[in-house]
Amino acid sequence: MSQIDYIFEIEQLVQRCLVEDIREGDITSEAIFAGDEIATASIIAKEEGVVCGIVVAQKVFEKLDNTVFFQALKKDGDDIKPFEAIIRVSGRVKSLLGAERTALNFMQRLSGIATLSRSFKNLVNQSNITILDTRKTMPGLRYLDKYAVRVGGCENHRYGLFDMYLIKDNHIKAAGSIKNAVDACLKHREVNMYKYKIEVEVADIEQLKEALGCDVDVIMLDNFSPENLKAAVQLVGGKVKLEISGGVTAHNISKYLDSGVDFISIGALTHSVKSMDLSMNIEL
User: Fold this and answer.
1) pLDDT beyond 80 at 284
2) What would the CATH number be for the domain defined by 155-265?
3) If you write DSSP's letter for every residue of 44-76 in order, what string do you get?
4) pLDDT per residue over 155-177, tens digit each?
5) Topology classification of domain 3-118+274-283
6) Most buried one in 110, 120, 201, 209, CB count within 10 A?
7) What is the pLDDT of residues 7-37, one digit of tens each?
């Protein structure tokens, strides 16, 4: 997908989310306000973190009412402290309240991902390891989830099933061996004139030995203990890039920093994220 396609996808996503929330109308605001009342509101942080999703929030307000004045006081990637204002909006009260929850939902999730990603990035700053995300994203939000990971300072693994060959345990079982699976991917890549990398997941040293005999770009060491990891790195001897996956947390990542691997993939960046606490306050 091109950048234009992604922008269109976000526009459609915002529209669906607004319809999901408002449907036939915000009956509470319709009951209280005539429709022409004007107000100013600020979106503020209630905890420390890394801001993300400002542009998406802007699209929410503008999609609902293009007369709303939107002022970004921060930018994606900025550190934020409690009670700092991130955004200021002015316009019809009904429009501000109608857009509030959808805008906050996007920003809270994306800021949570960016904050967690920043914390992992800081943990590996003194090493040569790159932290990667996974495909364990919220359905329909993958582009935004992965964007938030980058805002936090980590990097994206493959976007989907279409942009990298990643041979996992079930592929290997169904194909009969690692070699069978790799050879099939090599042939597919050649026939289709693709340039996508080939990565293979291994569960133990024996599978690692088999993978080393194949033409692959990256080998993923799945749930290797620190002890087995040391043996694996010695066996590989720098002949291929290595990725660790499974069981790595903020509490034990220090054990892997001098391991000699190139990448650590962290599914928790997107599948177990804690949303940042944000709120919107009408200013009287």
Assistant:
1) no
2) 3.20.20.70
3) EESS-EE---HHHHHHHHHHH-TT-EEEESS-T
4) 999 999 999 999 999 999 999 99
5) Aldehyde Oxidoreductase; domain 3 (3.90.1170)
6) 110
7) 788 899 999 999 999 999 999 999 999 988 9
pTM, two decimals, is 0.95
Question: What are the phi and psi torsion angles at 148 (to 5°)?
Answer: -65, -35
β-strands 38-45, 278-283: how paired? antiparallel
Tell me whether the CATH fold assigned to 3-118+274-283 matches the one assigned to 155-265.
no
pLDDT in tens, 135-156: 999 999 999 999 999 999 999 9
DSSP strand pairing (85-92 vs 241-245): unpaired
Domain ranges of the chain: 3-118+274-283, 155-265
Which tokens in the block code for residue 120? 């992992």
89, 180, 184 from 187: Cα distances, Å: 55, 11, 5
> Which amino acid type is present at position 211?
A
Does residue 2 carry a pLDDT above 70? no
Question: Above 70 in pLDDT, residue 3?
Answer: no
The answer to whether the Cα torsion of 45, 50, 51, 52 is positive or negative is negative
Phi, psi of 217, deg, nearest 5: -95, -35
Identify the bridge partners of residue 79 per DSSP, sorted by sequence position: 50
| pLDDT at 52 exceeding the cut of 90 | yes
DSSP per residue over 101-154, as a string?
A: HHHHHHHHHHHHHHHHHHHHHHHTTTSS-EEE--S---TT-HHHHHHHHHHTT-
Residue 255 near residue 98, CB atoms below 8 Å? no
Please give the structure tokens belonging to residue 209.
């030995």
